[in-house]
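If you are new to this repository, start here. Below is one unmodified record pulled from the training split, so you can see the exact layout before writing a loader.
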Amino acid sequence: MPVAGAVEVTPGLVDRGDPGGDLTTGRAAFIERAQTRGDLFIEQRYELYSEANQETWRRLYRALAGRWEQHANPRFLEGVARLGLDPDRIPRLSDINRFLQPLSGFRARAVSGYVPAYLFFDCLRRREFPTTITVRDGGRLDYLPEPDIFHDLAGHVPMHTDPAFADVLVRFGEAARTAAMRARNGDCRRVESALRGLARFFWFTIEFGLMRRPDGNGLCAYGSGLLSSAGEIGHSLESPDVQRVPFQLDWVVNQSFEIDSLQPLLFVVDGFDHLEREVMRLERWLGRGRLDNVAPGEPEVSREDLQSFLEPGA
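And here is the target side for that same chain:
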């Protein structure tokens, strides 16, 4: 597992912001150096954002703002207002946390890239949200093969202002800890199965979850993958090609998914109380071994993710 630590800037390398700086996903020298050193938790070097990065944020915000008003869960809209998200500038994590922590105890914590599964879930348990600081390529606004700062801060974090939803994330972290404790016997097949079930649950709720509106009149989006994509959010609630079904835990943990296409199947919870009950039931299932033999298929479990669960349980 990478060693966490603050990133030090190497003298002589270009890290001075526009026009030399750039924090575009996949081509940020600052991030590459942090990954090379094994630094997972880093600082948000705000001066490195280029004007092109800022313009990408502006375009994404303009594309989503109207769709949020139409399709987002009311608590998400309240969270956007509470955080004071600026439609014209990429937020500073320090400003986000100044508003966020008093509301739910959560804080956004900058990372240099992919966080191994157990460490990610354990951060949630400790009320920390690993936050990507790079920005997607402005030429591919709606295709997101990996998280970026818009997905994380505009898609995820507004929901973290709500104490009930924040508690759901903490419960999810506890569920992952239960899975890791069961990994003590080193049975990789069962650990892999449980991890696949956890990933599917997270995907169909926190990332791509739909919810009944509080007034009972239709559905709304609360999943960050929907809320951070202008294409997904409308498709999820308007397209006749999407199958929207009531949440069923046994179906969810056995349902594969694909990350590079519009979602054809989504699950609907009745409300945040319902979501919390399902997370608690997931944790009980993990403890009883009911995720030891979920259906094969996507997502594939990487060696790094598998090892992250085996190490804490050892």
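Two things worth knowing about this chain: The first helix runs from residue 29 to 37. Residues 71 and 220 are 5 Å apart (CA to CA).
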